[in-house]
Amino acid sequence: GENVEQHPSTLSVQEGDSAVIKCTYSDSASNYFPWYKQELGKRPQLIIDIRSNVGEKKDQRIAVTLNKTAKHFSLHITETQPEDSAVYFCAASTSGTYKYIFGTGTRLKVLA
Amino acid sequence: DADVTQTPRNRITKTGKRIMLECSQTKGHDRMYWYRQDPGLGLRLIYYSFDVKDINKGEISDGYSVSRQAQAKFSLSLESAIPNQTALYFCATSGEGAVDTQYFGPGTRLTVL
Q1: For residue B109, which residues of chain A lie inside 8 Å, CB to CB?
Q2: Measured between CB atoms, which of B41, B48, B104 is closest to A43?
Q3: Closest C-alpha among B80, B51, B83, B50 to residue B64
Q4: pLDDT 10s digits, B90-106
Q5: Using omega within 30 degrees of 0 as the cis cutoff, is the peptide bond preceding B83 cis?
């Protein structure tokens, strides 16, 4: 069935360094890829998304890249700050299904 | 995001009990979803509904049922709770369009003893 693999499961970086989280999807028809951030005890919230007609999207310190040929996409966080510490989830969706398949999450710790 | 609310926020129950989790939204969205979150397993879809007459099973629907009472309300029931249903449950909604953002409720932490 459809699957999204996410790596790494945990990631520790020093404050100011960059963090990269990678996801691979199985359904070649997937065309929408959101990223959610979940702080401790809170709900997941969308931080950035990308559609299959673009290869990269940036929003201040965060960016997402998409490689449709390889069926993988990545979240890049630059100049990390302690408030970036959270669990990050990737997801994939196909137009018309209105369903997401989520990755298993990455716990990011930014060390001060 | 107070537009999607869930009740109760925390619940402890015993094996075999029936329990209902409720979700309400003021976003005017047609599509609503129930997810379960377990450590290391991410968010898994239990049921979803595209309108009040449309209910669909997700990847882990066994042991659960749902009711879409109105456009704004979507309830999840555990007919006979078991300990491995202990988890964090999230409701989500999404609006019009071919692909669109899902907005999550605050979650319900359920413990089955």
Answers
A1: none
A2: B104
A3: B80
A4: 999 998 666 678 999 99
A5: no
